[in-house]
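fwd from M.: "can u put these together and see what the complex looks like"

so here's what she sent:
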Amino acid sequence: MANLKELSKRPDGFSPGHRLCAGCGIPIIPKLLYKVTDYDIVVASATGCFEVATTIYPYTSWLKPFVHSAFENAAATISGVEAMYQSLKKQGKIPANRKLKFVAFGGDGGTYDIGLQSLSGALERGHDIVYICYDNGAYMNTGIQRSSATPYGASTTTSPAGKVIPGKMQRRKDLTNIALAHHIEYAAQTAVSHWNDLATKLQKGLDIDGPAFICVMSPCVPGWMYPSDQSIEVTRMAVETGYWPLFEMDHGVFRVNYRPKQKLPVADWLKLQGRFRHLFRPEYTYVIEEIQRQVDDYWEYLAHMEQAFPAPPK
Amino acid sequence: MAKIVATTGNSAMAYAMKQINPDVCAAYPITPSTQVMEEFSKYVADGVVNTNLVTVESEHSAMSACIGAAAAGGRVLTATSANGMALMWEMLYIAAGMRLPIVMALVNRALSAPINIHCDHSDSFGARDSGWIQLYSENAQEAYDNLIQAVRISEHPDVRLPVMVCQDGFIISHSIERMEYLEDDEVRKFIGDYKPMYALLDIDKPVTLGSLDLQDYYIEHKRQEAEAMKLATPVITAVAKDFEKMTGRAYGLFETYHLDDAEVGIVAVNSAAGTIKEIIDQYRRKGIKVGLLKPRLYRPFPTEAYVKALGHLKAITVLDRVDSFGAMAGPLMLEVRAALYDLPKRPVTIGKIYGLGGRDLEESHCQYVIDELVQIAASGKYRELCEYITVRE
Ligand SMILES: Cc1ncc(C[n+]2csc(CCOP(=O)(O)OP(=O)(O)O)c2C)c(N)n1
């Protein structure tokens, strides 16, 4: 992997001047995507913050081909694009040496929830695509409604913290493992705070022939409620507390890519964000304890996965 | 050289698809259109087409993949019916709004509930406002011919809109008829090569498709879509002329049967027209001047042409194989009646809802309709503006 200085000199596919919020984590992903590869890429995006803030007619932030059609179908849309590419290539209508790659973006709502079927279909059919879910933990574009990616205990506009209910009372769905169950060669979880991990995973996803899935934690200033200059710190803390492990399944080998030297209590991450503020009331301490239990439980699961899918002996 | 065959409406559509040889086809099974894709899959498996067949996990994804594929820059076809099309609903509008030339073989079937697999037109008539061109087909020959013409219509630079070709589920899709197939190379020559105006795969000319389009531009884009629909009518006529040169089979915006000298007339799409023609023959033998207008085109609705063809009648009954619940009458009846409004001397126009869920339109029903028309022509009065027939009450 090149260093950041070298990457910064490589051509851009995604231009500044988009209308995502100050501090939004999403633009880091497309910026890196185009920089880590020499492939020409066609991007499809689901409806959501990313799409609406980068394609306001007559402007576009996309210097390379881009298509949006609806909310729940980025995976199906990119399937069609890729299918056309394969067809025209086989017919000799696209030169054999012109190798294109196909990437779909969806938010957690567009991926974990309404787009899950379309994602599953695309992964099962084996299209040569990389599906990237930018996971900001809620339907942000429509005003911070809960999704199945919203963390346990988080307050959103449809799971508000109230007098008797302390925010969302369901655990986040483990989407990366759902993707893995399609027997795809590459699935990974990463975060925008760890550019090197993110860049490596994007590159790996692009390099394989076939479907790859990458779930990227991406912070949201209005949704998580923290100062807009703290995005990277807040996201990094999700990794350091173990709430958001960085891992991958790469050709049958399961790896945890980063182990915090000293796993901090999850409360250290929660307390940085307004969406968890209510949990620090005395009556809701049990919710924080439950979140900690979930985090510890998940690390046990990761350990089992590493044992079950070890690297082959050298 | 044309080849005479005995085949079903579904096989005819699958054969047309084989001859069209689309670059991508994405579809999902549903009765009664399933066979279209089954037979087409066999053509793919045998390597007689270049098509990349995407066997999606739903109709929503079928239309989404068609949109992606068409936006990528190639020829795209699909097939569906009823609930399948209902699941595509959102994407139908998007296909049209993005001005993508997708062609759909639609085998008309009743929408649930109650669930029913047989023919009515609730699926395609429900989609009338989606921006798709709609061509209706009386029989397998017309379904086949329409599908081939649809490719040229949808890809025409003035149009660039998706087209659905409708035929009646089971009544036509599963019945064997005598018909003529063109040779593969005749079809290929007729449809020609497709050169998209914008293509995602044209990497050196990058485009952003499907932008967010707000108050400052949306209505202009919709206005262009409306204009494309208007421009489609002459294109459909021109393509039909070319098709006639090749096949001798004439197509226009509609077909008429004994209409020119008629005093009363029936308007009906698809297979019902076949039955009605038979009964018209009976009445003509008795000296009763009844005729038929069978629309080929419902969207765009060629108002002037329909008014010209129907304006001289004293009374008209429009048959709708679909209800618009709570409306004054069925959708075709309302539009025909509205079209005639500006005439100084308008025909009395009434409607019937018939055949929902595959109920047959029988001889006696047609006789009932014509007998009533004769009375209306004499008295200038009608009993009911819109009435269900073919029903037990
Ligand atoms: C079928 C459909 N349902 C609902 C919506 C409204 N909608 C648009 S974006 C969005 C939320 C997107 O959430 P997510 O995928 O998490 O992305 P984010 O907004 O966080 O970028 C919703 C509910 C829609 N456009 N289409």
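replying to her w this: Chain B is about 40% helix and 20% strand.
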